[in-house]
Design the sequence.
């Protein structure tokens, strides 16, 4: 069964840091772009970040660029999101998602988003 | 960024009756490769989103055939031929044609 297991959420201080992780199973992890998508309380969905299959290319929404870092370890089938300089408006459920953004010969594509983790909650508050 | 406007925001439906959700984009979603990357997601209460439709009209694996997608350019529609109780939730359209990927605001479907 294809599965994504999100973890690492919790309470973070404004200006502080949190690290989210996602462990994948049931598919060849190293073949796929992976992403994080978030959902603020009572709000819609927002794409946050994607990482290429090799980890060599990363992409970020403007709202998190310079503060968040996505990474992956294909030997462990994991993708992570390091979140620094947290703000109150980062409060959300974060979902790990199979698929996402890539650029092929300079052309933007967004594939898949066909498998979602169960989500992990991040609350930023003092 | 591409803005996707969904309507209605709230959709009360009767079991067994059809339902329809509109998604309009402020620019064409035809990609330079000729395809149109407009997707639909369902989020049942308390659950993660689930992909229903990709590239306008292709049902994702395991999605019942009562769900269908249509449209072109800037106007797209998700239709449910006969609503069942398990269809309650919020539906989102999402575009993957233009950077960055964006989602519509959602349509909440509930049973009358």
Sequence:
């Amino acid at each position: 069964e294809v599965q994504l297991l999100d973890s690492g959420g919790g309470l973070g201080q404004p200006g502080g840091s949190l690290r989210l992780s996602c462990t994948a199973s049931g598919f060849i992890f190293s073949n796929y772009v992976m992403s994080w998508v978030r959902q603020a309380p009572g709000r819609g969905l927002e794409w946050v970040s994607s990482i290429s299959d090799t980890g060599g290319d990363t992409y970020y929404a403007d709202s998190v660029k310079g503060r968040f870092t996505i990474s992956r370890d294909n030997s462990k089938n994991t993708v992570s999101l390091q979140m620094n300089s947290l703000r109150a408006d980062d409060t959300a459920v974060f979902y790990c998602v199979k698929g996402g953004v890539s650029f092929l010969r300079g052309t933007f594509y967004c594939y898949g988003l066909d498998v979602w983790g169960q989500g992990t909650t991040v609350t930023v508050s003092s | 960024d591409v803005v996707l406007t969904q309507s209605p925001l709230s959709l009360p439906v009767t079991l067994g009756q059809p339902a329809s959700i509109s998604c309009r984009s402020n620019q064409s979603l035809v990609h330079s490769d000729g395809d149109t990357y407009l997707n639909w997601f369902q989020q049942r209460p308390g659950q993660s989103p689930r992909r229903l439709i990709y590239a306008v009209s292709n049902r994702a694996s395991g999605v019942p055939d009562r769900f269908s997608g249509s449209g072109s350019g800037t106007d797209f529609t998700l239709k449910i031929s006969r609503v069942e109780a398990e269809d309650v939730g919020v539906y989102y359209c999402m575009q993957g044609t233009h950077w960055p990927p964006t989602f519509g605001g959602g349509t909440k479907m509930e049973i009358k």
Summary: Chain B touches chain A at residues 31-33, 37, 39, 41, 48-51, 54, 60-61, 92, 94-106 (CB under 8 Å). The first strand of chain B starts at residue 4 and ends at 7.
